[in-house]
Amino acid sequence: MSGETPFEEIISHFISLGGEAVLVNPDRICGKNHLLSSYMHAERAFSSGTNRSRNIVTETIMYCAWERQAGTAISKMRPDGSGRYAALLIGIEDPRLDEIGMIRDDSLLEASERKAELLDLRDPFLGAEEQALERVAMTDLLKYRYRE
Question: In angstroms, rounded to a whole number, what is the distance separating the alpha carbons of residues 19 and 11?
């Protein structure tokens, strides 16, 4: 989604609708499934008790960033201030984006060569989105390997 509304106001809007939102830099999301898979892995981590964060939003961001540390993941995925966000809405059926001056733009999620370079996705045999999905899955291994 894109628009001029400040980050905190967007988050407040979605909370007022009774849900939550994961808002990250779209340049660091390589395909819609990168974001969806990150959420599914985060849900599984909470249901199995292997979560490393206190809430589903942060856990999802950790999977999106392929990081085991919340602070590192949040820093890496922080929106860049351009008014463009990759958004995953949790528990919200109608986001009422017009109320906050935002518009839906699914093209922001699409994989691209530029994103692949930025994210260091260089396998010549797999597409960028498939590589992103592999890294989401590998985040589970990082969590177990470095268990504290």
Answer: 9
